[in-house]
Design goal:
This protein has about 180 residues and is mainly α. The protein is built from ten helices and no strands. InterPro entries: RIO-type_Ser/Thr_kinase.
Length: about 180
């Protein structure tokens, strides 16, 4: 391919559909994929070509409702000690399942490199995004006044941009008649 190391179709599919790849770990995943592509060599072997063609022709469900027998697949994966059955599932990355059928927090590409440190950091960040609006029990009167004033200011700001109810109803009525 013009002497450029490229990803296989399966690697590209896994990269695009993996729910654990986000903005923070995307560069690391791309670096890892480029290392794999460079180490693979220029010409794919006959076995790699066959497996790529099999993957291209395989049915890939877009949701679990399209999976014909999900329970059978899970039982087959649990019964297989080597993990070969899990690799055969084309929708494994769509589900975000790890080797032990638990939800993955890091991409499979980075799981062997990073250990588990980044998943703990991600969990901490998710917790810090939540803003607790409940008032503390031992709140001082001054902080209570400040909190109430902030809430009132937010509500006043909302009222400034609010569409009056009669205008909103009129717009909905016009939309229905144009359809």
């Amino acid at each position: 391919r013009n002497q450029v190391a490229t990803m296989t179709v399966k690697e590209l599919f896994d990269f695009v559909t993996d729910p654990t790849i986000n903005d923070k770990n995307m560069e690391a995943c791309l670096d890892r994929l480029s290392e794999l592509a460079a180490s693979r060599g220029e010409e794919p072997s006959q076995e790699e070509r066959v497996s790529e063609e099999v993957f291209k022709s395989a049915f890939i469900p877009q949701s679990l409702t399209e999976v014909i027998d999900f329970e059978r697949d899970i039982l087959r994966v649990k019964a297989d000690p080597e993990g070969k059955a899990l690799e055969d599932l084309t929708y494994r990355t769509l589900l975000g399942m790890g080797e032990d059928l638990t939800p993955q927090t890091t991409p499979a590409l980075l799981a062997d490199q990073s250990g588990g440190e980044s998943s703990e950091e991600d969990e901490d960040e998710e917790e810090s995004k939540f803003i607790n609006s409940a008032r503390p029990r031992d709140e001082s009167p001054n902080s209570k006044k400040a909190r109430k004033k902030a809430v009132k200011d937010q509500q006043a700001e909302k009222r400034k941009t609010k569409t009056p109810k009669h205008v909103k109803k009129r717009n909905e009525k016009v939309k229905k008649t144009t359809k």
